[in-house]
Amino acid sequence: MDFWKTSRALFHAGCFERIGMFKLSKKVQSLPPYLFLEIDKAKRKARAEGRDIIDLGIGDPDQPTPKFIIDALSQAALDPANHRYALDQGMPVLRSAIVDWYKQRFNVNLNPETEVLPLIGSKEGIAHFPLAFLNPGDFSLVPDPCYPPYKGGTILAGGKPYLMPLLEENSFLPDLKKIPFSVRRKARIIFVNYPNNPTGACAGKDFYTELIKFSTKNKLIIISDLAYSEMVYDGYRPPSILELPGAKDVAIEFHSLSKTYNMTGWRIGWACGNAQLVAALAKVKSNIDSGIFSAIQVAGVAALRSNQDYINKMCQLYQQRRNALVSGLSRLGWKVNKPKATFYVWIKIPPKADAISFAAHLLKEANIVATPGVGFGQYGQGYIRMALTVSEERIKEALARIEKIS
Ligand SMILES: *Cc1c(COP(=O)(O)O)cnc(C)c1O
């Protein structure tokens, strides 16, 4: 079999019982199918046909990593001390830069020895964390729609995702009261992610207060994914759950340099919060990986210790794009949620329309890629997600094309 066919089959492994003569594990069989690969395939095909595609599909910054961070990496890469295995728990300079950043940004105190763990991107930490706490049959409470590793990590750990619908009528917050007592008893973990991918929704301190109360009562671990805390508009400042009383007894927060500093390809993030939860994740990881390339950690320190002007500029750029897209679509009569944070716009499609067919229609007729909401879970049906990762000019071009086919 040729290489691409084989790798494609592996990507789709979630849909198959076996690959060739080899039967897949039950866990891998029960992973949700990977819709994004299908979209990518359709996009490549359209590009190969010479069509001018506007890609609003992927949540990956289009701007380069700032030069001062690249310079820090280049310097650090020349130092042989950085060529060896990194420390599992991350370099002390990085842990203390993270502690200082949290203090400055959220006024949260963290112990750099026990309450901070650098990660090879926050995704791997989020996906590995359930291995530390789930036994077969245990639930984790997962928002739907959501960032896929919450479900994937749960399933690979032998657990079962229990879906908490994120509905517009609840401002895309989970309704904790609706979770049945039978589920609460068997649940170990609850995932939350605000500012939210894919809906762009935000949560206030009152939500976190209720969540901490609920989790303490039900002996649940809170995983707060704060990847988008710095990608914000109109002066909005999202809180960290760790700002709230009692949070450190039950919560671990995941953060990342990926979106804040245009460093998605570099792979650097961290977990912080409750020391026992951090230690448990460190124990899992010590059996799986051997830390982040030290030169990247040094570059991460440069990013976190820089003055944050660069972030303000980035937010201004996305804010202009957001305004252009949201006002343009609203003018065309589309129902759009204007996000206060993240680079995603979550758009309602006509009632009864199917999200995948709608996205396929946009690609076929207007050469625009958008992500069908169902790619993030069943409650994403009825929506598509557009990412603000192309220039304002291209956004205007996309709007003109949409107007033409409406
Ligand atoms: C992009 C993103 C992350 C960051 O992942 P990294 O592995 O740190 O690059 C985490 N959570 C969500 C919801 C995201 O969209």
Describe the structure.
- This protein is an alpha/beta fold and 406 residues long.
- The chain folds into two domains: 3-60 and 310-405, Aspartate Aminotransferase, domain 1 (Alpha-Beta Complex); 69-304, Type I PLP-dependent aspartate aminotransferase-like (Major domain) (Aspartate Aminotransferase, domain 2).
- The chain contains 15 helices and 15 strands.
- It has helices at residues 3-11, 26-29, 35-48, 67-77, 92-106, 122-128, 149-156, 181-186, 205-217, 247-250, 275-286, 294-305, 309-331, 355-366, 392-405; strands at residues 18-19, 22-23, 54-55, 116-119, 139-144, 160-165, 187-192, 221-225, 251-256, 269-273, 335-337, 344-348, 368-369, 371-372, 383-387.
- The strands form four sheets. It has a seven-stranded mixed β-sheet, with helices on both faces.
- It is globular.
- Residues 59, 121-123, 147, 193, 197, 225, 227, 256, 258-259, 264, 269 line the site of pyridoxal-5'-phosphate.
- Pyridoxal-5'-phosphate binds at residues 59, 121-123, 147, 193, 197, 225, 227, 256, 258-259, 264, 269.
Main sheet makeup = 7 strands, mixed
Bound molecules: pyridoxal-5'-phosphate
Mean pLDDT: 94
CATH architecture of the largest domain: 3-Layer(aba) Sandwich
User: Roughly how much helix do the residues carry, as a percent range?
Assistant: 40-55%
**What is the number of helices?**
15
Number of strands: 15
The CATH superfamily name of the largest domain is Type I PLP-dependent aspartate aminotransferase-like (Major domain)
Query: What would CATH call the class of the largest domain?
Result: Alpha Beta
**Domain unit count:** 2
Secondary-structure element order, as H and E? HEEHHEHHEHEHEHEHEHEEHHHEEHEEEH
pLDDT below 50 for ≥5 consecutive residues: which ranges? 1-13
Strand order of the largest sheet: 4-10-9-8-7-5-6
Shape, per Cα inertia axes: globular
CA(first)-CA(last) distance: 43 Å
Tell me the β content.
15-25%
Estimated structural class:
alpha/beta
Report the radius of gyration as a whole number of Å: 21 Å
